[in-house]
Amino acid sequence: MFDYDFMRYAFIAGVFIALICSVMGTFVVARQTSFFTHTLSEIGFSGASFGIFIGISPLAGMLLFTSASALLIGLSGERLGRREASISVFSGIFLGLGILFLSLSDKQANYATSILFGSIVGIDQSDIEVLVALSIFLLVIITLLFKRLAYNSFDSQGAQYNQRLNKTISIIFLVMLALTISITAQIVGALLIFVLLTIPASATKYFAHRLHQMIILNFIFILFGVWFGLYLSYLTDWPVSFFITVIEALIYGAALLKEHIANHQK
Amino acid sequence: MKPILTVQELDLVIPNRTLFSKLSFEIPQGALTCITGENGVGKTTLVKHLLQDLTSNYTAHTHFAVSRDEVQYVPQHRSIDDEYPLCIRDFVAFGLKKRSFFRHKKENEAKLAQILAETKLTQIQIQPLGRASGGEKQRAYLAQALCADPKLLILDEATASLDTTNKHELLRLLKQVMQQHGLTILFITHDPELIEMYADYELHLENQRGTLISKEAK
């Protein structure tokens, strides 16, 4: 399996994706902005096809669109991102725009599939370099601002009054989320990115209550999902996103089952 | 004693309504002052406005004897549901101001342990906050605020969702930490029993004005 370059790259990418998604996913779930995250990944799809359309790279287009939207949402208040109606409007418009840009750029339809659902065969060395560089950049910011980001995510009302520059922290978080989505979309695709950001983090809630334990467990869940998914995909030639989603969903199912049993024993 | 907060001739207008006009009062240091008044009189709006002035250093009508970092505000509503996963200890630790993990680890841990003990949360510190009772949640909010070494602590309707026993327990705890930490406490409430028993002063807001009444707390 590791004779193929793209498989080695995919496994390496998995480690970095797990590193950033474990922290960002824990915060996303704490902020209860899973659906905004989903919308942001659709905006990412739109950005990627825009990138193809005007001839810059899909990643650049994605970064452009998601960061711009994150800034917009951050400045207008995150509440907008929690409103169901505005989420539906944004989702719809950006998916529509994505299709438009793709059709204007006369690329084949399978290009859309690979942006939306990811493709491991598509990863080459330059992709992995960009991914590692952006991941390290994100990890540095996470390290520097960890406690502020945690306060902002886990106790938004408390942080609003008692943390200096709290609004700036919110905006920084949203831009970091935009970066995370753009980076991760290369492997699992724009639509399934939110699988990695929300499902494992929702499962860890039932197993761990210390912040560092939650993040470590989340890392394990994500890395296991990505690696095992890649392996199964290699064996069966079925799409890797399918396996990752199923594995993460099973982990979440197990968490709910564990919680259910624990509640009944009381 | 020098007041911790002086408000002079403050006009506070929200869309379509004047909440206060030419409002003036002083809040004494080192005491517990209850802010009282009918629902809708603008207690919370006033406090938030004063904090806003402090944050933006606008001193035309409001003068604090402390800096913004020395004020902790405990809001009335927090979105902590049953499934809120984070343990009490980590929630409380968000209040700590010295954030460097390596330089301040020992200092922070010692302080956290002391505050958890004072607020009687030591036993349940690794339980998820979502599973804590109403009284325990309020103590956790208080503990988080104490971690920031405030000089002025403002609590908004902290006893609103508590039963009688827990209310009195929280107020006794407040008076105790006020002594130990040398705090000034502002407490928004409309519970006459608590005001009677624990308030050193009452700031009563009515008809767009405020009157400070000295109380003999028991």
UniProtKB/TrEMBL annotation, chain A:
Family per similarity comment: Belongs to the ABC-3 integral membrane protein family.
Domain of life (superkingdom): Bacteria
GO biological process: transmembrane transport
Gene3D superfamilies in UniProt: ABC transporter involved in vitamin B12 uptake, BtuC (1.10.3470.10)
InterPro entries for the chain: ABC_BtuC-like, ABC_TroCD
Segments forming a coiled coil: none
GO cellular component, one term: ATP-binding cassette (ABC) transporter complex
Stretches that traverse the bilayer: 9-30, 50-73, 85-102, 130-151, 171-199, 211-232, 238-257
Compartment annotation: Cell membrane; Membrane
Name of the protein in question: ABC transporter permease protein
Pfam entry (one): ABC-3
Keyword list, A-Z: Membrane, Transmembrane, Transmembrane helix, Transport
Recorded topology in the membrane: Multi-pass membrane protein
Automatic annotation (TrEMBL), chain B:
Signal sequence, renumbered to the chain: none
Single GO term (MF): ATP hydrolysis activity
Nucleotide-binding in keyword set: yes
Residue ranges annotated for the ABC transporter domain, each copy included: 5-217
Pfam family, one: ABC_tran
Keywords, ordered alphabetically: ATP-binding, Nucleotide-binding, Transport
Protein family per UniProt: Belongs to the ABC transporter superfamily.
Protein name: ABC transporter, ATP-binding protein
Organism: Ligilactobacillus apodemi DSM 16634 = JCM 16172
Lineage summary: Bacteria, Bacillati, Bacillota, Bacilli, Lactobacillales
